[in-house]
Amino acid sequence: MEQLTKLSGQKIFIITDFDGTIAAYRKDPRKVNLAKDMVEILYKITRQPDFKLAVVSGRGLKDLENMVAIKGIILAGCFGGLYRDERGKLSTWERAYEYFGPAEELYSFFSRNISLPEVLIEKKEIALTLHYKDLGLKKRREIFNIIEEAQEKNPAFDFHIGDKGTEIIPRGLGKGWFIKEMLSKYPGYFPVFLGNDWVDLEGIEVLKGRGLAFYVGDSPPPGSHGLLGLKEVKKLFKKLLALSQGVLSAS
Prior knowledge:
The protein is α/β, with parallel strands linked by helices and about 250 residues long. The chain folds into two domains: about 1-95 and about 175-250, Rossmann fold; about 95-170, Alpha-Beta Plaits (2-Layer Sandwich), CATH 3.30.70.1020. It has eight helices and twelve strands. An eight-stranded mixed sheet has the order 5-4-3-2-1-10-11-12, with helices on both faces. A four-stranded antiparallel sheet has the order 6-7-9-8, with helices on one face. Helix 2 (about 35-45) links the parallel strand 1 (about 10-15) and strand 2. The protein is globular, with a radius of gyration of 19 Å.
């Protein structure tokens, strides 16, 4: 890819989503894991002196730390709201402290009102996700009514309601904020962002004219380049690694 050859000699900052981008989706999100060859590639990236690597996910930070147990990676949970740098120092979105209590209250509300085994209530530090893709239409309507009640009582959160799940995120927080934070902290690095769904569109928008963005899936949005799956993600990472060794061809 011609755009990559132009990065030769530059410091590169790879910022990537987790689920569906560097780790394959699973029916149960608790069973997702990194493939062995992906772990090896990520490890190699962290050992390059002119590279930085961050994983930013909608998962909770503690959950992400269990999923990506590789030293030297910046790990950001809750859509970037809480993150640990490559040395393990914890930092947060400036308003994160306002949401720990309300997120716990929301979790308690859903736990009291939803007892269906097909619904997974994923509690994060300052956000939540409801997974219900296996629900029938009638039960799904019941869940939507409960979600709408929670939405009315919690205007400080954005509720992104979908057919398979609902993301509940602090208003004003998103991966775009995290990417801007990283650009500010590491101004000498050229940013390369990878994502695969609607929560990553903000990150793609932030990098327009400032870096490279890749979308894993069909129909990449404007401002991004398409990658068809994890195999192509691995190929991209290997090409970026080749840059540090000066062996990437113009092809």
